[in-house]
């Protein structure tokens, strides 16, 4: 039974993503104390070399273990090729020679994939944002990592056309955003859009919403002062004012039009 402190072995190398597998196998072999044997030359017993920490037998034993570990993490097709190699250094050098150059071409492909990536409206935006995050992580593993601020800006710029207004609102925010907050904002926006689309696609739900809104408007109208029999119609009628002649200031009867008396 494996202990919790045991190193985690890498997956078997199948010819793809060599740089990633090489980093994992380096960590694995270093944890086992075997990786340095690849670059050490075998000790010469005829010469007195006190700096050597192991004799020839110990060197052969470690090299045998290291060679076996490397072979065990190759797929069957690659195992058949490299099982004839005598030392771990021979296997390591040949793998780097063949797949290291091939992996350099994959670096350019990963960079091109990131630059040309564009989100579409036909797929969930959150899933596409995660795909772009995976590509950025792949670039980091290949030594072409970008800063998080640049990743956030690129993700916003690659949003689908229907999200143009949402993207502009994010660009106008003053505070800095992280990928975590950006993905959270995209998820909330997508849920909001899905809810709106659900209402549009469900006529019964839309009719119910309109009915409730209509009831609210009717309730407001009944409570307004313009309702029939409301406060405005209960006002007392104003009595006509008596007309006053400006010359003598005598009252004018509003009924017959004569001066000096009032009806």
UniProtKB/TrEMBL annotation:
Q: Where are the transmembrane segments?
A: none
Where would one find coiled-coil regions in this protein? none
Q: Where is this region: Disordered?
A: 223-249
Molecular functions (GO terms): nucleic acid binding; zinc ion binding
One family from Pfam that matches here is Retrotran_gag_2
Segments of skewed composition (Basic residues): 231-244
Q: Which residues form the CCHC-type domain?
A: 252-263
Q: What is this protein called?
A: Uncharacterized protein LOC120110455
